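Hello Y.,

Per our agreement to keep a running log of every chain we model this quarter, I'm adding this entry. I've kept the format consistent with earlier entries: sequence first, then predicted structure.
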Amino acid sequence: MECGVSVSDDPRDPPEAVDGEDQPLDSVDLAILDDIRALFAAADPVPSGLVARTAFAIDLVGVEDEIARLEPVGLRAAGARGAEESRTITFDSESLTIVVQASPAGATLRVDGWLAPPAVRRVRLRAGEVDFATESDELGRFVVLDVPRGLVQIVVEGEDEDGDGDESADVDGDSDGTGVSRVRQVITPAVVL
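Predicted structure for the entry above:
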């Protein structure tokens, strides 16, 4: 019988005990792990900026927030003149669809957006360390100017459901005892514009 190999043909049976398996890692174990780490770093390196993009994407998310999904769109604006090209992206969640169109405006972008169902809502576009705050109109339309190219994320606050003009109601409608009220937000994944 070999150490660490199951004596049964049934793959559900655990392997036999290996000498020293309950011992702490020693310098040989650590050297082997370093070699494995180097092998994976060479064969499949972590994309540059992945950690920063991940932290950016989850920075705002609260337990009660709704995350929108990025919907694939295969069409680009067909411009008859010039080389300018706009990009349209659709995000969809259980309660809201967000469509944005990013168009070049010199060195920056103009972002036009539409919410469905349409409603007046506070909208924030996060671009790196900068937050652009605006509000959609009664048709659900909003515009953000001078957006730098790069990673962006859109946050749409929930609408006033009771019609009293106060959007600071608790997400679940009752007090959580913290003294802090929040409106449910719809948050898009971070995308590069």
